[in-house]
Amino acid sequence: MPGGRRAERLAPYVLVAPAVLIIVVLRLWPLLLGVNFSFTGDGARNGIAVGLDNYRELLDDPLFRTALRNVGLLVLLLPVAVAIPGLLATFIYFRVPGHRLFRGVYFFPAVLSPVIVGAIFNLLLAFDGPANAVLGGLGIGPIDWLGDPDVAIFAVVGVHVWATFGMGLVVFLAGFATLDSALVDAARVDGASLAQTIWHVIVPGLSRTIQFVFVTTMIGLLTSMFGLLYIMTSGGPEGSTYLPEYYIWIQQGQMNRPALASAASTALFLIMLVVGLLQVSLLRRAGRED
């Protein structure tokens, strides 16, 4: 019997050991190697310890500073990127007419390749394309969606949100399956408006789901836009659509500077970690206040 109890205590560790081993070997160990490599030099100084020289060079590079500013812009736009699938999932939950059709239509862009999405929107957002034709019909002058440095980043981010919000929609719908429908019915009986029901019933009830979608959406914005950037703007115009992942690819793939790319990767990881922890902290605090 003592042996049986010992085996029972060890069983959970044995079961999780393969997953932990995979994470350590394929994630943590390469991450540590990349961080260590970021403190070495490129070119003639390859393999030589250079301290913080790569990080100083990053801060002095205007393209990397532009990438950091764009990260700040993404953080500001993040609530919008989360609210869109959240609101659409709410309408589907309340079974608006055609909700089954909308569920499939909204998810469809998520299965398209970023290359295909980028090529399609390059045609739609061309200076003489359909989008400007519609604006012209409304008496609004044409917009250089992908050629204006002040507009291009918003265009690319908007396309990314359109192409990926289907995944967030699915997560929200799964969260609605755990929501106590009696609370929603009680709010209706009390005469609460849709906005009041969303704010006082749905948002607190889906707080954990919202936290998850916030973090995963942020990770997607920071690490999954390379395909769109490459196809739609290639980092232009004037480097205005640079993001850290695109900067990393340029340094590694075109400039042959793997150590500097490792430093940029480490900086991106730290940014994601800090922003993610701040988001979770703020959302938890808001949930407690509600």
UniProtKB/TrEMBL annotation:
Residues of the ABC transmembrane type-1 domain: 63-279
Topology of the protein relative to the lipid bilayer: Multi-pass membrane protein
InterPro entries, per the entry: MetI-like, MetI-like_sf, UgpAE/MalFG_permease
This protein's UniProt keywords: Cell membrane, Membrane, Transmembrane, Transmembrane helix, Transport
Subcellular localization: Cell membrane
Origin: domain of life: Bacteria
Transmembrane segments: 12-32, 71-94, 106-127, 151-179, 212-232, 259-283
Entry keyword Transcription regulation: no
Main localization category: membrane
Family membership noted in the UniProt record: Belongs to the binding-protein-dependent transport system permease family.
Name of the protein this chain belongs to: Sugar ABC transporter permease
